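Components:
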Amino acid sequence: DQQVKQNSPSLSVQEGRISILNCDYTNSMFDYFLWYKKYPAEGPTFLISISSIKDKNEDGRFTVFLNKSAKHLSLHIVPSQPGDSAVYFCAASGRSGGSNYKLTFGKGTLLTVNP
Amino acid sequence: DSGVTQTPKHLITATGQRVTLRCSPRSGDLSVYWYQQSLDQGLQFLIQYYNGEERAKGNILERFSAQQFPDLHSELNLSSLELGDSALYFCASSVGRATNEKLFFGSGTQLSVL
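Structure:
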């Protein structure tokens, strides 16, 4: 049961344009959402997060939007740079039985930014 | 560099064998997490330890076990290996025990079961 879904396996954009990566979730108990970026031969690195009490969080070129009613979040990268080319994982956290929280990841979206 | 160290980087073994993956968390982090990434799969949560005790369990097979030692390093033991266990295994660490925290990942151990 895929509770966090990234339906686009890949995305290609031109340098300088906006990249929009999408993520959907099914578990209404999720209350914290994160994006991680992964380069080849490296582990994922934290990029940006958002709590369910907010609908937007911005950090430089990166903005995450959360639509709780649609159970949807998106990551916007503006402007996109070739160095942004990586796999982006959406992750969600929330109660999963008892008092334990579990971070659940999507399958990732490969972003390619073309010069 | 995330500060999380995983060894070995690559491991090639045969079906039926047993292997041990090792992880040293960032200095000061008390939680260690293990994740598995297979082809076409996202990062599947296996297990979390906090300060030596099991904190949360995910999709970890009974053939797999883990522990966290007093010095906070962790080992993931995989036994009776099958072809389908071939995957990239990541260790991550965080300061606290709640997983709604930023995790710091190691660069992974690539396991190939032949």
